[in-house]
Amino acid sequence: MNKLKNPTNDALFEAFLKLETVEECYAFFEDLCTFKEIEAMGTRFEAAKLLEKSKTYEEILKDITISSSTLSRVSKALKYGTGGYELIINRLKENKKMD
Question: Domain-by-domain residue ranges, the chain?
Answer without folding.
Answer: 1-32, 35-99
